[in-house]
Amino acid sequence: MSAMPLDSDQALGCFAELVAAGTPAPGGGSVAAHSGMMAAALGQMVCNLTIGKPKFADREPRMTELRDELERLGRRLRELIAEDAASFEAVLAAYRLPKENDDQKAERAQAIQTAIGVAVSVPLETAERSFEVLELLREIAVGGNPNAISDVAVGSQLAEVAIKAAGYNVAANLGTMSDVNKSREADERMKTLVEQAKTIAAEVAAKVG
Amino acid sequence: MSAMPLDSDQALGCFAELVAAGTPAPGGGSVAAHSGMMAAALGQMVCNLTIGKPKFADREPRMTELRDELERLGRRLRELIAEDAASFEAVLAAYRLPKENDDQKAERAQAIQTAIGVAVSVPLETAERSFEVLELLREIAVGGNPNAISDVAVGSQLAEVAIKAAGYNVAANLGTMSDVNKSREADERMKTLVEQAKTIAAEVAAKVG
Question: How far apart are CA B27 and CA B119, in angstroms?
């Protein structure tokens, strides 16, 4: 394949370096999406280790579907890494708007609410997509090549971390949201996702011998 | 900084693509080391968000030490990503050695034991280094910029996943190890690390508001 070799600094270190730098973004929210992407990659690997093996021939059509779906989710999560960092910066930019008269104050308040809306919806989507990855991993834990069950478990745990981490970013912004219904809805949805993710990840981990 | 931009495919996608491919390595073991590296990066970020702020001036010397130590651990974990994949391939290569006569059989058995020794020591080191990262994150959760506490929690959870994931790879190889004492020692050490990591990660997560 044409991918970069594993010991390449560029392949491995750049995102970590961007995180390590003394700027708040990319931070936990981008790392959440990145963890979801890695979970999807492990799932794809296990599908690929199942496809083409005569003894799993009957499962091949479904494993191919799962792999393609994980690839799609991984691609979206990869985009969410950058979207999370951008949404954080947009909130800071809104707070920096001038507030010297009533018009400016109203405009600034509106800009803050718009930016906060995105800063909630981005990690919420990261959590939703990572949860979809986790549900596919649960199916792969049953139908995939059993030699790779520990890889499915690692993927499930990373998807769970992605969901919890995204939840921190949702929660951090809800207090500033003026739309109380939307805020409560996001809060309840995140709680459900975190709870169900914990159950599924534990279920998959229990399958490792 | 000179790092690659966040939306660059090379910075984000290459490692995930190598994982997703239908080869067993890089797999869960390399992803373990990668997760430990990301945990270290989040810790470095929080140190950097603490250093240089007048209100945390008294903590600056210690935060600088913690950041430098995390950078060192992150660098080693980055190396372990590739070492894990190589150690897996070395085990496969040893099994593929000829076994047509007694000399060849003895040589092959010896080569397998040598390769298995490395395939245990690499994930064990991944777990040890990730545990060191986790212990530093625990300290940062107390002394670091409290605005970034959720980033410390995400890092702690990733370090915990790294340790559990490395543990799967240690366990997978112990059955083949002929040195029973070394095998038992590795097994006990891993159990301790997994248990303590769970406690510390939960302790840090409890600090998020």
Answer: 13
